[in-house]
Amino acid sequence: MKNVPQTPRGTTQCHDVSINLLKANDFVAEIIKKEMKQNNVFLVNMTSSAGSGKTTLLENTVDKLKGKLNIAVLVGDLETERDADRIRKHGVQALQIVTGGICHLEAQMIHQSLDSLDLQNIDLLIVENVGNLVCPSSFDLGEDIRVTLMATTEGDDKPRKYPKMFLTSDLMLVSKCDLLPYLPFSVDAVVKDAREVNHKLDVIEVSSLTGQGMDEWCEYLTERVKLKQDNLLAEKEKVVG
Ligand SMILES: Nc1nc2c(ncn2[C@@H]2O[C@H](COP(=O)(O)OP(=O)(O)OP(=O)(O)O)[C@@H](O)[C@H]2O)c(=O)[nH]1
Ligand SMILES: [Mg+2]
Asked: How remote is the CA of residue 52 from the centroid of ligand 1, in Å?
């Protein structure tokens, strides 16, 4: 039998992440930030537990915004090309990052993928992180905003159980709101829980099934993309002037 190194029972790879690895990650995240600034690209890091509806939301988001913004998507999963295939069907470039067992995306993985993107012609780059509410919270990908989905099927007590993700997020999308009539889930309770962790957290209730909240979410994104573009333009004009 092969001598395969075993992860001790009750631990995951994520617990072995050293401070040095996080420092190295932050170094690359800064490089990504600079490249995004140079190319005028707004970068979103989308996180959630597995199956909270990230890819479905992105499919609908791309449909609503693709005439208005140039969008590209990077998707992280442990295995398969499935999510990138789903998004490509909606007419935008989507690249799959297969982590091969790693439970989160790291800045280096994003940086390597950037060579395959025509950044000069992208306004909005969305990264769908690996479905996991724990490990991805520790890895800055150089994003402008972090958006976390919290599905009604997960229970309204999760933010304070997994605080780092909500602490480091700018927006919580309460997803699958069409299921609210059938579930013991209180939107008020989940918002209260999340804002106890991060009082600045924005919240939008969405459903990819009914389209609830999609206009608000798309406006939220569009406003921030435009704001970054305007700020960068003003900075350039200041330098030239
Ligand atoms: N009722 C309901 N179901 C949804 C909604 N959005 C997604 N789903 C369903 O939830 C399941 C998971 O959706 P995905 O979009 O694949 O979720 P995900 O977060 O991308 O999953 P991973 O990438 O595996 O983490 C699918 O069966 C979807 O059809 C929604 O708004 N309402
Ligand atoms: Mg997905």
From this structure: 5
Only one residue has tokens 């724990």, namely 134
Of all ligands present, the nearest one to the C-alpha of 94 is 2
Is 7 domain-assigned? no
pTM of the model: 0.92
Q: What is the pLDDT along the chain (241 residues), one digit of tens a residue?
A: 445 444 445 445 555 556 777 889 999 999 999 999 999 999 999 999 999 999 999 999 999 999 999 999 999 999 999 999 999 999 999 999 999 999 999 999 999 999 999 999 999 999 999 999 999 999 999 999 999 999 999 999 999 999 999 999 999 999 999 999 999 999 999 999 999 999 999 999 999 999 999 999 999 999 999 999 999 999 988 888 7
Domain that holds residue 170: 27-225
For the chain, the domain total comes to: 1
Q: Determine, yes or no, domain membership for 103.
A: yes
Where would I find the beta strands (DSSP E) of the chain?
42-47, 71-77, 93-98, 124-128, 145-151, 171-175, 202-205
Q: What is the CATH number of the domain that holds 35?
A: 3.40.50.300
Tell whether 18 is covered by a domain.
no
Give me ligand 2 centre to Cα 55, in Å: 4
Query: Under a CB-based contact definition with an 8 Å cutoff, are residues 32 and 43 in contact?
Result: yes
> Does a structural domain hold residue 132?
yes
